[in-house]
Amino acid sequence: MKQHFNSGTARNSITRNIIALILAGGRGTRLKQLTDWRAKPAVPFGGKFRIIDFPLSNCVNSGVRQICVVTQYKAQSLIRHIQRGWSFLDGRFNEYVELLPAQQQIKETWYQGTADAVFQNLDYLRRHHADYVLILGGDHVYKMNYRKLLAEHVEKNAELTVACVEVPLEEASAFGIIAVDDNWRVVDFIEKPDDPPAMPGHPDKALVSMGIYVFNTDFLFDQLIRDHHDENSAHDFGKDLIPYLVPRNRVYAHRFMDSCVNMAAGIPYWRDVGTVDAYWEANIDLTTVTPDLDLYDKNWPIWTYQEQLPPAKFVFDDDKRRGQAFDSMVSGGCIISGGTVRRSLLFSNVQVRSFSSVEDAVILPNVDIGRNARLKRVVVEKNCKIPEGLEVGFDAIADSKKFHVTDKGITLITPEMLGQRIHYLE
User: Fold this and answer.
1) How confident is the model at residue 107 (pLDDT cuts 50, 70, 90)?
2) Exposed, middle or buried: residue 410 (CB in 10 Å: 0-12, 13-18, 19+)?
3) Which residues does alpha-D-glucose 1-phosphate bind (predicted)?
């Protein structure tokens, strides 16, 4: 399927000599059973997308069209999605999305850390003769113009630029903490401290790394080789490489505020949907009148693979049997057959049968919700068949005996939990 891009996404000289490397090999254990059969970047999001579609779309929209995706953990779902949905780039113009599965190319071990994942693909990167390497995580939801990040990197004559964002102090221990001087040169970097320091003048916030880096290519190669020979290193960018480089080299921070696309109320949108609670919250936010993430922007679209499906259908209009949805997103192929959906996000091919009720729910593709079922504050995994009359979300103690219930009261339902045969060929 060919895609067409407007002139605002055309490549210019600053992005012609950069290659993007998306690290997409992680499991994401905090998402519990959602990553039993797929890597975190392949987890569905937003009704029709996968999480990895966001960094991939940011690359394409920024004019960065030499893209490699590094895979490792349970990658088949991710590989199939990229093959189906991201083959539209034109190799005749040196545009591509290429998959780099873990192959033990340099040593007989799988990737030991994020830096090692890049190191084991050095020979591949050398063949492309790029001036810069853009390193991205494949598991965050955001919209960012990487061209602005690269321009700042070049302007400051940096050897490494780290994208950063402000987060509430109570959440900062999950990230690398950055301290900068008046010129935004990084003067300190602490990886995931138990007691993170606050930003000067902002006692309730911390400046953290987004896991987005721009390196000068030769500099990156030299540092990866040095790190590879360091027996005391865990070969990770956040734990080892960046703390080593900060006092020795020209390392700058880039404010996400300066390159974020579609900020709601002037606040940059960046989500680590790495827990079931965070995943539920980010999806449910999309159903609000004005969500923090704009998926309707034609100037910065999120590209993906999607099946050719019929429109959503709502049937029956009796007083006690009415197919209806309120404050919800309903994807193609869905049939709301005499049931009620409120404040929920339904992925494709979901059937809500008569007299059932779905509230504050995230329902993944190909789910069949039986008659008289009641679901509230749930995430339902793909291919579940919800039994007739099942009630979930009203008694946490009872639910926890069969399903996974989070500390915030969100219930995750999977086919295994329902005692059903698994069909996870995605």
Assistant:
1) low
2) buried
3) 111, 176, 191-192, 209
Residue 296's nearest CA partner among 283, 308, 286, 311 is: 286
Please report the pLDDT score of residue 225 as a whole number.
96
Neighbours of 159 (CB within 10 A): 20
Q: For residue 365, which of 416, 417, 423, 406 has the smallest C-alpha distance?
A: 423
What distance in Å separates the CA atoms of residue 134 and residue 146, rounded to the nearest whole number? 9
Q: Binding residue per annotation — 192?
A: yes
Q: Cβ neighbours of residue 384 under 8 Å, at least 6 residues apart? A: 364, 367, 368, 413, 414, 415, 418, 420
* Nearest residue to 388 via CA among 408, 409, 368: 368
Per-residue pLDDT band at 177 (split at 50, 70, 90):
very high
Query: Torsion over CA of 53, 58, 59 and 61, rounded to 10 degrees?
Result: 110
pLDDT at 2: 40
Per-residue tokens: 217: 């290519």
Supply the pLDDT for residue 7: 35
Q: Under a CB-based contact definition with an 8 Å cutoff, are residues 272 and 162 in contact?
A: no
Q: What is the average pLDDT value for the chain, to the nearest integer?
A: 92
> In this predicted structure, what is the pLDDT of residue 104?
61
Is 339 marked as binding a ligand? no
* Ordered structural domains, the chain, with CATH: 8-287 (3.90.550.10), 313-418 (2.160.10.10)
111 is an annotated ligand-binding site residue: yes
> How far, in Å, are 276, 382, 385, 394 from residue 420 at the CA level?
21, 12, 8, 23
Amino acid letter, 316: F
**Which residues, at least 6 apart from 178, have a Cβ–Cβ distance to it below 8 Å?**
162, 164, 186, 188, 189, 207, 208, 209, 253
Note the Cα 216 to chain centre separation in Å: 25
Per residue in 271-302, pLDDT tens? Answer: 999 999 999 999 999 999 999 999 999 999 99
**Residue 320, annotated as binding a ligand:** no
> Rounded CA gap, 111 and 129, in Å?
23
What would the pLDDT profile of 77-102 be if each residue is shown by its tens digit? 999 999 999 989 888 888 999 999 88
Residue type, position 168, single letter: P
